[in-house]
Amino acid sequence: MELGSEQHKRLLRMSIMKVAWKTASIGLFFGFLLIIPSLIRDNPLVNGLALAGYGLMLSFIGYALYIAWRKYQKIFKTF
C-alpha cells in the first residue's frame, strides 16, 4: 500500500471515525450513568444529575465531532 492511495485514504478515514466513535461512546456511557437515577426517583438532586448527564453526552459528542473534523482537515489537506 502506497501513501496517498485510495486504500490508504480509506484506512485513515476509518481510523478517524474509530477514534471519534470511542470518544463519543465514553461520553454516552457516563452520561447515561448520570441519567439512570432520574428513572427511579424524582427530586431536585436527581434532576440536576440528569441534566449534567445530558450535558456530558452532548459535550462529548461535540468534542468527538470536533477532533474528527480537525484530524480530517489536517490529514487530507496534504493529499
User: Helix amount, in percent?
Assistant: over 70%
Structural class: mainly alpha
Counting structural domains, the number is 1
* Average of the residue pLDDT scores: 93
SSE series? HH
Number of helices: 2
Beta fraction? under 5%
Number of beta-strand segments: 0
What sort of overall outline do the alpha carbons produce when their principal axes are compared? elongated
Uncertain spans, ≥5 residues at pLDDT below 50?
Answer: none
Q: What is the terminal separation in angstroms?
A: 15 Å
Describe the structure.
This protein has 79 residues and is an all-alpha fold. The chain has one domain (18-74). Helix content is 86%, strand content 0%. The chain has two helices and no strands. It has helices at residues 6-40, 44-76. The longest helix has 35 residues, at 6-40. The relative contact order is 0.16. The mean pLDDT is 93.
Fold blueprint:
Layout: H1 6-40, H2 44-76
Helix pairs in contact: 1-2
Task: Name some characteristics of this structure.
elongated, 79 residues
In short:
This protein has 79 residues and is mainly α. Helices cover 86% and strands 0% of the residues. It has one domain.
